[in-house]
Amino acid sequence: MKRLNKKIVCILYSIVLIGINVFGFAIFSNYRMTDKIFHKRVVEVQARQQELVNVSEVHKELLKFANQYHVTIMKYEFLNEKELSIYTTNQQEVLNMKFPYTTWKINVYPFKDLKNVGYGNTFFIDHTTRAIEQKLEQGLSQYGIVKIYTNQQKWQSINNLSVLYLLGFSVLFLLLGFSVYYIYSRKKIALMKYWGYSKVSIIWKINKDIIRFWIFNEMIWLMIWIGVGWKFEGIQKIIEYMSTCILVNLLISIIIFLLAIIINCMILSFEKHISEGEKNGFFSQIKKVSYIVLISVFIAVQLTLSNATNDAQRLKDKQHTLSYWNKTKNIYTINFQGYDSSVAEDSLEARNINDELKNFYQKSKDKIKIFLINSDNYEKESDGRGNQRYEFEYVGDKEEQICSPAGRSIQIDENYLKRNPI
């Protein structure tokens, strides 16, 4: 029976080690991915007041600068929470960027294709120095205010607490297994005490096979971490993988063994009472307590699984809503600064802009079925007190804002119904 209990403890320990390493590796890989992608220098080009930034010229300047100084410049476009498009001046470098584990879908495109999705004003730059950054700042200063800083992207280490709960329950089961194993080893403990063994010697004798099993498993997991690190990031990053593996496993194992030693010491202290207590049902009381704890853990596991099922259903619903998000991928914003549509102007420049817009709309309407959205009511303006207010907030009370065309509404032309029939 004692040998069987020892095997059960080893099996439970294996389950805990699997959970610790898989969970720890997922967190570490998430950190590595975030560090590789987002921990870079950022270049922002902000338009000066009443000026229009020529984005195509900025684009050409960035391409020229990247080729001249051998730096990598990237623009990130998120399609959804787990899909990222990277437009880069060095495709091969990004394609060679490997991650051991990630649920993200990463698409890589040449920087010149950025014109198809809009330029934006924020770029990531890699392989740079302060001297190179100063030259870039000087080169882009003609297009607006240039800011260069280190990105401090925060990464979410734990996405699903249910996994953490299950890991905690497995550790609790392991400690219960230790307790049962020590109780069934009480006769051996009594003999060793009778022969004059110290408490330290008794604890070692009782746990040595489990400790050897733990060391063997830890060596296997260490080799797995090293192998994965070598494959995906090369020998230069092996130290990081080794240190993370040792830290994760050693920290949890020290906590488990400290608790196990406390349980072992309690069994040593109460061994005489336990042996004598078998006659008056003391041991049966211990088993009853164990059963109560096991039932409580079982109920907790059921609640966790129920919570996980609900989370899965919510995730399914969110994935369904992504179909609507995908329809917005081809929505573009065109903003002509310096052209005020509210002013009746008949100048040649105004007519030319109107003609260009009309031609663009007519061709695009027939070719790709675009539709126009006017959201002027949601533009923000300063209220003169340092705060920003939407345009519709200046239209009467809340009821009027709902009913009025100048209130909480947008204007969409009839082509919307061609793309999204009711």
Could you characterize what this model shows?
Keywords: Membrane, Transmembrane, Transmembrane helix. The chain crosses the membrane at residues 12-31, 163-184, 211-232, 244-269, 289-308. The structure is a single chain. The chain is an alpha+beta fold and 422 residues long. It has three domains: 2-30 and 161-279, no CATH class; 40-150, Hypothetical Protein, Haloacid Dehalogenase-like Hydrolase, Chain: A, domain 2, CATH 3.30.1240; 348-419, no CATH class. It contains twelve helices and ten strands. It has helices at 2-38, 55-69, 91-95, 130-140, 161-184, 186-194, 199-233, 238-277, 282-326, 348-368, 398-403, 415-419; strands spanning 41-46, 72-80, 83-88, 105-110, 122-126, 145-150, 373-374, 380-382, 388-390, 411-412. The protein has a six-stranded mixed beta sheet with strand order 4-3-2-5-1-6. Strands 7-10 form a two-stranded antiparallel sheet. The relative contact order is 0.09.
Helix content: 55-70%
Distance N to C terminus: 71 Å
Order of helices and strands, N to C? HEHEEHEEHEHHHHHHEEEHEH
Quantity of strands, as a count: 10
Q: What fraction of residues sit in β-strands?
A: 5-15%
Global structural class: alpha+beta
| Mean of residue pLDDT values | 74
Give the tally of structural domains. Answer: 3
Largest sheet properties: 6 strands, mixed
Give the radius of gyration: 33 Å
Strand order of the largest sheet: 4-3-2-5-1-6
- The geometry reads as elongated
Low-confidence residue ranges = none
Q: How many H/I helical runs?
A: 12
Structural features:
membrane, single chain, alpha+beta, 6-stranded mixed sheet, transmembrane, 12 helices, 422 residues, transmembrane helix
